[in-house]
Design a protein that fits this description.
This protein is mostly helical. The chain has 2 domains: about 120 residues, Serine Threonine Protein Phosphatase 5, Tetratricopeptide repeat, CATH 1.25.40; about 90 residues.
Length: about 300
């Protein structure tokens, strides 16, 4: 997906559907075109395909589907919302904002577009605007899981760990099979140094039924961050014999988690940073406790 793309409903990708119309017209007559168009070429059809592509983190494909939906209906709310989220995930904040604002101009109470607009505001470091959008969304739908999740993320970004923890825990209790909520809860637990609890949430998230591709990669990345943080806290240079072995085991697991995240195929800008932290921690252990580190390396050798 190229950075120069901006919201414009004329930019569509409807080739496969138009081909279907042509085939039916060619072989079955013009009277079937309306039915084919309604069933296979509607804006809802394209929006659903776009959502599937987002879950697979196929952002360019998702963009094409949502644009195709807007080609059928330039004010189609699901397509506008979906396109906005695609751009937000891609870091194209101005394009995302344009899609969300168009959506809200059509329906100023559309929850996903209020949430998306809040996401753009947070990304642009304007938390007051994000809070305004989410407060409105909360007033409209106080029990909506997406709204609660966005409020939890906003609280997390503002350092309000108690609020973030409460909201994410509510979501996990309500929908334990959604990995994204366990990811959010694990992030709060990591930041409050509850490493064991964070790892438990990550493990549960990795086997959850609803686990989009990007969420899976983020779970592995967070797992690595937790393990590196636990290693940094658990290592004691004055107690090499006791702490070196478990700390190196945690660092081995952290590096395995980084490899798993890389294999998902989703680009995470912070992942190389986590890798460097793991290597620095390993070097710190080797420098302070060379004998135990060397013994550990020999024990892993084939």
């Amino acid at each position: 997906m190229s950075a120069e793309h901006r919201y414009s409903p004329s930019m569509t990708d409807t080739g496969s559907c138009d081909t279907l119309i042509f085939i039916f017209a060619r072989f079955f007559g013009l009277r079937w075109i309306g039915l084919v168009f309604a069933l296979s070429c509607s804006a809802d059809h394209y929006a659903a395909k776009g959502k599937q592509a987002v879950d697979a983190h196929e952002l360019a494909s998702a963009e094409g589907h949502f644009r195709a939906g807007l080609g059928r209906d330039p004010s189609h709310l699901a397509s506008l919302s979906g396109l906005g989220w695609v751009y937000l995930l891609a870091g194209q904040h101005d394009a995302a904002n344009a899609a969300f604002e168009h959506c809200l101009a059509t329906d100023d109470e559309h929850l996903d577009c209020l949430r998306g607009s809040a996401g753009v505001a947070s990304a642009k470091a304007t938390p007051a605007m994000a809070k305004t959008r989410l407060t409105k969304a909360l007033r409209i739908a106080p029990h909506d899981a997406g709204v609660i999740s966005s409020l939890a993320l906003l609280a997390l970004g503002q350092g309000d760990m108690a609020s973030a923890l409460g909201r994410y825990q509510t979501l996990v209790d309500r929908q334990p099979d959604k990995a994204e909520y366990r990811l959010g809860l694990a992030e709060v637990l990591l930041r409050t140094k509850r490493f064991k609890d964070a790892l438990s949430q990550i493990q549960a998230g990795l086997v959850a039924g609803h686990r989009p591709k990007r969420t899976t990669a983020m779970l592995f990345q967070t797992q690595s961050r937790v393990l590196v943080a636990a290693a940094a806290k658990g290592f004691d240079a004055g107690r090499c014999a006791e702490t070196t072995k478990p700390v190196l085991a945690w660092l081995d697991a952290a590096e395995a988690a980084i490899q798993n995240a890389n294999q998902i195929g989703v680009k995470l800008p912070d992942l190389p940073v986590v890798g460097r932290r793991a290597r620095r921690q390993r070097a710190r252990v080797a420098s302070a406790c060379p004998e135990q580190s060397e013994f550990s390396d020999r024990s892993k050798a084939p």
